[in-house]
Each structure stands twice: as structure tokens, then as C-alpha cells.
Specification:
With about 425 residues, the chain is an alpha/beta fold. It has 14 helices and 15 strands.
Length: about 425
């Protein structure tokens, strides 16, 4: 059997070769300090008990299919949530529930794109967006985000990338991997570009409740009522339940512009039968109950303290600079190319893994164009963060002024031992 040609240029390096080497090392008995994936569960950040109990309570009634768009009660709760946030036009029928946002990203793009259509995606990005565009027959075009300006999008570059084949712009706010939170004027500029160029906005807002200091999240749809906007969110991050796979998308904008697309979405929703039913029962309780994430991000809260510590320690390493994240669960530090002349950042993180038993994600995995960044997750406890940064500092001190060794997969097992 041969691989489909559609997969030829599709990458998802977050679970690629580096991850495979880490698993091999763990199978050989090594303990790997994982600072690479945004899964709260391994670090003791568990789902609120009230949500788990409510889901258990509904298990016996969750054995059959639900409506293909999702349970009415779940969609009502999502609709009411957005209405309280100023999106008064969001109704129950505007909501599609999915098995996580990941499924909905693929579904909404498949319903929208023709072969060769271009979609603008931020660089750095969450790589599922780029992969899903390509799997849907589209072409991903990356616009620059400016590290010197809080990692906000370079709007001049965004507009310069628009062509006659451009159909949509993806906005990731708060951003993964940079932690940037976009102010109103940035979102208004995106809305203006969509109006002038007849584009659709895909707004990934899964981290909307994970905000630090004075950062404020603004829904893209709230500044673009006259533009088709798809707003994605879910329970994976703020409610610490990624394994439950409960996400949703809300479709807003003039119905005259979205009627045919809505029919396509309903068709694809029906083809997958329905989202998993037990997790849908967690949505109403999650959105309507006490928002425990506030305790984690406020001053003295665990995530806030871990972000501050990680950022401070990383910035103390010679040749490493790190913009503090305004939201989400990550930092995206930079290596000074004069001190660290890296030409292959994937090999760099493999060398780090094999020498120091610590796993981070290389920056080019997020479609960042130069091999001088890596993503560092702030979920582990403070002791693990201190340990991780110490290992990184030791590794970089030993490799200062050196390029990483050329990759030789045949030697990975020997090096791991």
C-alpha cells in the first residue's frame, strides 16, 4: 500500500521524529522531562471535580447518538456564553460541537476550500492549521508575527500576502506558541482586510481564558459582525480536559453570505454521525459554573507563577531572550544566532534530548522560518521548570558557538543509551 499524495508535504512535527526518539529512550529506561506538549493532566492540573461528576451522572443517558451538530443543551450553553460576551447574534443553530477543536478545523476547511485556494496562517502557527489546509486541497501562506512588537501580527505583511486566490485568514488568539494576545486594533485591521478582499476569518480562541496580568481577550467576531467569522474554542485548555475531546465552532456573519456553507457543514457533521456524547454533558457545567482557571492565572496562581519563573530563568541564560507570554501555556524563546549558529533546530532539540533527557519543541515545527527558537511549556511545577532550564543552560553552554551535529538516524539509539 502506498501513501496518498495528499500527505506528501504535510507535517506535524510536534509528534514527529523527536517524539519517536523520546519514546524509544523511555522504553530503554530513561526518564524524560517533557516540556513539549500542552497537556495539563500529566502535571497535576486536573479537570474541576464538579465537571467530572456531572459527566459521570449523564453516562447512562449517553449511549446513543446525539444530534449531528451536538446536544441542544450544550449548544444552548455555548450560544448563551457568547451572547454574554457581546455576540448577541450567536444562536443555537450557529454552533457545531466537535471531538475537540482539531476535528472542527479539518471539517470547516474541507467544507470551504477548493484545490489551490490560499489561506493566510500566522508564523509561528499551531501546525495543525497548515496541515489541515493542505489536506483540504488548499495552499498555506504564512504571514509574519513580530517578536519585537509583542509577537503581534505584522499587518503590512498580512496584506502583502493577499492574492486573488486568497480565501481566508487564520487568527490564533491567544497565540500558540508565542502566548501573544491581540489588542482590539489588530483585530479591527483583520476585519477590515476581510471586508475589502472578501475573505473569511477563522479565529482559533481555545486559550481565551488563559490570560496574564492586564491582557484582555476580544472575540474576533465582536469587531466583524458583517464578516463571516468562525470562532473555535473548547474545554481542552482552560478546563484541563483535552482527553474528553469537547470543542465547538460558532459561525457568525450575514446569513446571506454563509447559507450554502452552513449546508456543507451540516453535511459533514452528519457524515461523522455526532461528536462523542459523554463529553458534551460537561459543556454546560463548564461554561456556567465557577471558572477555576482564574485561580491559576491571577497573581500567586500556579500558571502565573510558573510563567514568571520560566521567563525569568530563560532570559538569564546567555544568548537566550524570551518575550513574556500574555496568555496560553507557552513561551517561545530565541537563541542568539551569533552564540548559537544553529542550522537545524530539529537536530538541536534531538541533541538536547539525548544529552540532557529533556524534550522541547523546535521552532520550525511551528513554521517559523529560521532555526533560532523553541517552544517551552509552562505547565510543569516550579521544581521541574528550574530543572529543565538548568539542563537547557548546561547544554547551551557546552554547545556555544557550535552548530548541532548532522543528523544520523542510525546513531540515535546508540546516543540515547
Amino acid at each position: 500500500m502506498q501513501s496518498s499524495s495528499r500527505l506528501q508535504n504535510v507535517r506535524y512535527d510536534l509528534r514527529g521524529p523527536v517524539q519517536h526518539i523520546a519514546k524509544q529512550m523511555e522504553a530503554e529506561g530513561h526518564r524524560i522531562l517533557r516540556m513539549n506538549l500542552g497537556d495539563p493532566a500529566p502535571f497535576g492540573l486536573e479537570a474541576p471535580e464538579s465537571i467530572v461528576v456531572d459527566m459521570i451522572h449523564h453516562l447512562r443517558g449517553s449511549q446513543g447518538y446525539s444530534d449531528s451538530k451536538g446536544l441542544f443543551s450544550a449548544r444552548t450553553a455555548i450560544s448563551q456564553y457568547y451572547q454574554t460576551r457581546g455576540l448577541l447574534q450567536v444562536g443555537v443553530e450557529d454552533i457545531f460541537v466537535g471531538n475537540g477543536v482539531s476535528e472542527l478545523i479539518s471539517m470547516t476547511l474541507q467544507a470551504f476550500l477548493e484545490n489551490g485556494d490560499q489561506v493566510l496562517i500566522p508564523s509561528p502557527d499551531y501546525p495543525l492549521w497548515t496541515a489541515s489546509v493542505m489536506l483540504s486541497g488548499g495552499e498555506a501562506v504564512h504571514y509574519a508575527c513580530d517578536e519585537q512588537d509583542n509577537w503581534w501580527p505584522n499587518m503590512a505583511d498580512v496584506e502583502a500576502k493577499i492574492t486573488e486566490r486568497t480565501r481566508a485568514i487564520v487568527i490564533i488568539n491567544p497565540n500558540n506558541p508565542t502566548g501573544a494576545v491581540y489588542p482590539r486594533h489588530i483585530l479591527e485591521q483583520f476585519a477590515d482586510l476581510a471586508r475589502r478582499h472578501d475573505l473569511v476569518l477563522f479565529s482559533d480562541e481555545i486559550y481565551e481564558k488563559i490570560l496574564f496580568e492586564d491582557a484582555v481577550h476580544i472575540h474576533t467576531a465582536s469587531v466583524a459582525a458583517d464578516v463571516p467569522v468562525l470562532t473555535f474554542s473548547g474545554l481542552s485548555k482552560a478546563y484541563r480536559m483535552p482527553g474528553y475531546r469537547a470543542g465547538w465552532v460558532a459561525l457568525t456573519g450575514p446569513r446571506s453570505l454563509t447559507a450554502a456553507y452552513r449546508e456543507s457543514l451540516e453535511l459533514l457533521a452528519s457524515l461523522r454521525l455526532c461528536p462523542n456524547v459523554p463529553a458534551q454533558h460537561a459543556i454546560q457545567t463548564s461554561l456556567g459554573g465557577y471558572q477555576s482557571i482564574q485561580d491559576l492565572v491571577k497573581p500567586g496562581g500556579r500558571l502565573r507563577e510558573q510563567r514568571d519563573l520560566a521567563c525569568r530563568l530563560l532570559n538569564n541564560i546567555p544568548g537566550v531572550s524570551c518575550v513574556p507570554a500574555a496568555g496560553a501555556m507557552y513561551l517561545f524563546p530565541k537563541l542568539d544566532p551569533k552564540l548559537y549558529p544553529v542550522t537545524n533546530d530539529e537536530q538541536l532539540v534531538i541533541d538536547l534530548l539525548q544529552e540532557q533527557k529533556i524534550l522541547v519543541s523546535h521552532g520550525t515545527a511551528f513554521h517559523w522560518p529560521t532555526p533560532d527558537h523553541f517552544r517551552f511549556v509552562i505547565l510543569p511545577a516550579e521544581t521541574e521548570i528550574r530543572d529543565a532550564v538548568t539542563r537547557i543552560a548546561t547544554f547551551l553552554a557546552n554547545h556555544r558557538g557550535k552548530a548541532p551535529s548532522p543528523r544520523d538516524p542510525s546513531k540515535n539509539r546508540t546516543a540515547a543509551g
